[in-house]
Write a structure and sequence with these properties.
Two copies of one chain form a homodimer. The longest helix of chain A has 11 residues. The first copy, chain A, has about 150 residues and is of the alpha+beta class. Chain A is globular and about 45 Å long. The first copy, chain A, is built from four helices and seven strands; from the N terminus they run αβββαββαββα. In chain A, strands 1, 2, 3, 4, 5, 6 and 7 form a seven-stranded antiparallel beta sheet that branches. At the A-B interface, β1, β2, β4, β5 and β6 of A face β1, β2, β4, β5 and β6 of B.
Chain lengths: ~150, ~150
């Protein structure tokens, strides 16, 4: 019998790592193989199943990238503290109205002035598969949190 | 007759943007399609032809990634100043001894204790194709510097 995996320690560790970060660089792969990054304001709450959420417009280029190549990278950098985080994730788009309302925060008004009524408003749901993180400048080997076992349940 | 392009304004603008940054997140694509990022200390000098250089070990995983998929992304983040830079580049490895010696700086000793005599020491040469940058939190559209015309000359 396979032992049941408890998601909580990994998710708690992820929450600890991301505390204080407001903005990530989201990297996607374009059809021509080029890699594009852009800053994305993150929804503060991290789901229990280690899902991250980002508001976007459904007609943006990154959405096309993700439709064709679901694997993304989300990185967080704090150079002053020499803290760096790389998240390997699988992204998909949702326009579920309840989810949009549940995840909305006032800070997103800056990028989406019409708020929850923005016609093309959507959410990128990123399932976290693996986290590599560095908390010291002198080490080139990251510490790692794996969520892969969880996604296969 | 095609007008000759002057590399200098773009390269100067790139130098201005990167001034003060010591560390980038380098994103590569693995054979299984997953995207990996890791912090990389950058060689301070940016060549006139907009090439960036990073020391690495030639047996590291990112080198395998780059052998199979040359397109990379290099991002710089300064959350306190809300400055974000995304560089689309094409990477290749070199072990040219003169280049290794020319690019070596004392700060790299932290990661490569044997210095220039580290047996697996190599350089990643990244040709910059395009730069997207954000210098304000309220804009979602980046400013752009294109180097693509230059690489076709």
């Amino acid at each position: 019998m396979t032992q049941s995996l408890d998601t909580k320690p990994q998710t708690q560790e992820l929450r600890r790592l991301l505390a204080g970060f407001e903005c990530a660089m989201l990297t996607t792969v374009d059809d021509d193989g080029t890699l594009h990054s852009r800053p994305m304001s993150i929804c503060n709450e991290i789901d229990n199943d280690a899902t991250l959420w980002f508001f976007t417009l459904d007609n943006s280029h990154k959405v096309v990238d993700i439709e064709h190549h679901q694997q993304v990278n989300i990185s967080f950098s704090e150079p002053n503290q020499q803290r760096y985080i790389s998240i390997l994730g699988t992204a998909q788009l949702t326009k579920d109205r309840n989810k949009l309302q549940g995840k909305w925060q006032h800070k997103f008004q800056t990028w989406f002035p019409k708020g929850i009524n923005e016609p093309n408003l959507a959410l990128l749901k990123v399932k976290v598969n693996k986290v590599d993180y560095w908390e010291s400048s002198s080490s080139s080997s990251p510490q790692t949190i794996s969520f892969l076992e969880l996604s296969h349940r």
